[in-house]
Amino acid sequence: MALKLFPKGREFYELFTRSAGQVMAAANALDELVNNFVDVPAKVARIKDIEHACDKITHECFERLNKTFITPLDREDIHALITSLDDVCDAIDATAIRLQLYRVDKPTPMLKDMAALLVRCTKTVHDAVVRLDEIKNPEQILAECVQINKLENEGDQLLRKAVGDLFDTEKDAISLIKWKEIYELLEQATDRCEDMANAIETVVLKNA
Amino acid sequence: MALKLFPKGREFYELFTRSAGQVMAAANALDELVNNFVDVPAKVARIKDIEHACDKITHECFERLNKTFITPLDREDIHALITSLDDVCDAIDATAIRLQLYRVDKPTPMLKDMAALLVRCTKTVHDAVVRLDEIKNPEQILAECVQINKLENEGDQLLRKAVGDLFDTEKDAISLIKWKEIYELLEQATDRCEDMANAIETVVLKNA
Amino acid sequence: MALKLFPKGREFYELFTRSAGQVMAAANALDELVNNFVDVPAKVARIKDIEHACDKITHECFERLNKTFITPLDREDIHALITSLDDVCDAIDATAIRLQLYRVDKPTPMLKDMAALLVRCTKTVHDAVVRLDEIKNPEQILAECVQINKLENEGDQLLRKAVGDLFDTEKDAISLIKWKEIYELLEQATDRCEDMANAIETVVLKNA
Q1: Residue C75 in contact with partner chain A when CB distance is under 8 A
Q2: Measured between CB atoms, does A177 come within 8 Å of chain C?
Q3: DSSP label at A69?
Q4: DSSP-derived 3-state class of residue B134
């Protein structure tokens, strides 16, 4: 079942790959931030820069879509893929901003675990996106989608543990509100990776 | 305007029906939990089991989609239907987990009202799904979708009343945060039923 | 690249235009409410009336879709457009309800800024919708979509500033919870305008 999805649409493939690269860079930058919590404003600004770069790729994709008559994938699928990647970046940026905005003193071990999981998750998204070029091997891409779903489930469990611990130990309500939101936003980044997996799955199902 | 939607695609129809059955079972199990709040961990685990069963049906549906060349409905609609059902189950599971995680002492009357409403809502979803087999009677299915929308509106009003009461009477901020989230998650289950109604509506509009 | 999108489907165009008009009316009514915070229940009820009117237009659109064999746009796009407009109205209504439900004393300057931004945003949505009739000028519509995206970014920044200030100054956790939710809901209205911009973009990309 060999199929070249992007015979004349390599530009779209390249845009997806570049966007997935930015998503992975954002996750790595967040991981670095929470593991080495110094120069916070500069590191948060760095993540914002990555998010802007991702935005630019998204708009480039939309413009190209506007100029292209025959697209390698259905227009709505190209839209869904590039938008999902953008959403992951947005959630990572939103998490980083809160760490600064809420004047967090010190990342918790739980936060570090969640950031590490996100790194693995965005790496798997990137792997799947790179493979989209030739859907020779849909089973492999679908296996990566399953893997992303599994990581998202793990993320969900980490979040529940983090929030459960928070309610058990944090007696200051305002501090609890801050940490709960930070954990939830970080888990949303993983959730948006799952949306990306679903968008990939749809493309593979339609074209394989 | 008689139409057999699933002449050769009965498997999809059966997957939707089984998934809608699990959704109804989850709502009933939650209703039982809040009305008889003993053995909480076991009952929460039971809801998690139902959610896993629903997940398995969802993946079975995706795999079948992958192997089927000509589908009885558009691929993206099959995707939307099975995903919406899955989302309802997820929200019910999320609510049950919080009841245990936040060490709730006693369900409130408001929570019982919201659970009862969800039971009616998932029952209507199930009725509509069962009827999908032969769209002989689109008016009836569409009427059920309208009914689900109405129940969702009721759920919204229940939520507002519950949260309003909470702010008027609950002086402990951490307890307020817990209950607000539990109410909101339960209302989200009803919201996801509305998404399902919209997905059904789309299918009927396209095929009737 | 002149194109008449609604040669025989003027009714859909008129429904979009009417819905966008209600959305703009809701934003204006909210702006009036926060700038002249008297007769709150009556003004909140007025916004609820607008939201109901918007709902009715949405259902009229669905019914018409059900009766129309050949539609001027893809069915799913008509669905997306009318649903996005409805979602904006819902978020405005949800914000207004909280102002009453949470017994807010006095709107903050930040809330007024956010309401003013929403007025500009819904006006731009309306401008783009009106122009949908004849996509003679896709560049102009797409420019309006870009503008909506920019306003949504501004809204995001306003929200972050508002919430940051809140955590810096508000020491009462329950009051903080109320204001945080009000700000977030109002920003969600702007977010839903962005969803509308994306739906418009999709239609233009498909048809231009």
Answers
A1: no
A2: yes
A3: S
A4: strand
Say which amino acid occupies B12: F
- pLDDT band for position C2 (50/70/90)? very low
- B37-78, pLDDT tens digit by residue? 999 999 999 999 999 999 999 989 988 887 787 888 888 889
Provide, as residue numbers in chain A, all residues whose Cβ is less than 8 Å from the Cβ of B75: 202, 205-206
CA distance C141 to A208: 35
Q: How many CB atoms lie within 10 A of CB B67?
A: 8
| Helices A75-101 and C173-207, axial angle in degrees (round to 10) | 160
- Residue C101: band (very low, low, confident or very high) from pLDDT cuts 50, 70, 90: very high
Q: Band the pLDDT of C6: cuts 50, 70, 90.
A: low
Predicted complex ipTM exceeds 0.85: no
Collect all residues of chain C within an 8 Å Cβ-Cβ radius of residue A101: 160, 163-164, 167
Pick from B177, B180, B205: CB nearest C75: B205
Please indicate if any CB of chain B lies within 8 Å of the CB of A160: yes
DSSP C21: H
Q: Are A37 and A107 in contact (CB under 8 A)?
A: yes
Are A66 and C204 a contacting pair at CB < 8 A? yes
Give dist(CA A71, CA A80) in Å, integer.
14
Distance CA C23, CA C57 (A): 11
- Compute the distance between CA of residue A17 and CA of residue B33 in angstroms, rounded to an integer: 47
CA–CA gap between residue B135 and residue B2 (Å, rounded) = 6
Answer positive or negative: Cα dihedral of A26, A27, A28, A30. Answer: positive
* Residue B134: strand pairing partners: B4
User: Where does the pLDDT of residue B3 fall: very low under 50, low under 70, confident under 90, or very high at 90 and above?
Assistant: very low
Q: Is C206 on the interface with A (CB under 8 A)?
A: yes
SS3 at position C9: coil
Closest C-alpha among B155, B8, B150, B19 to residue B87: B19
Are the C-beta atoms of C118 and C92 separated by less than 8 Å?
A: yes
The tokens describing C200, both together, are 């418009």
| Global pTM value | 0.87
The encoded tokens of residue C37 equal: 């915070």
Most confident of A1-15, B131-145, C11-25: C11-25
Judge contact between B148 and B193, C-beta under 8 A. Answer: yes
DSSP designation for C134: B
Structural element, H or E, at residue C146: helix C138-169
Q: Measured in Å, how far apart are chain A's first and last C-alpha atoms?
A: 7
Closest CA to B133 of B3, B46, B1: B3
**Region A112-123 average pLDDT:** 98
pLDDT digits (tens, 9 = 90+) for B129-166: 999 886 667 889 999 999 999 999 999 999 999 999 99
Contact A160 B76 (CB under 8 A): no
Token pair listed for C99: 């102002």
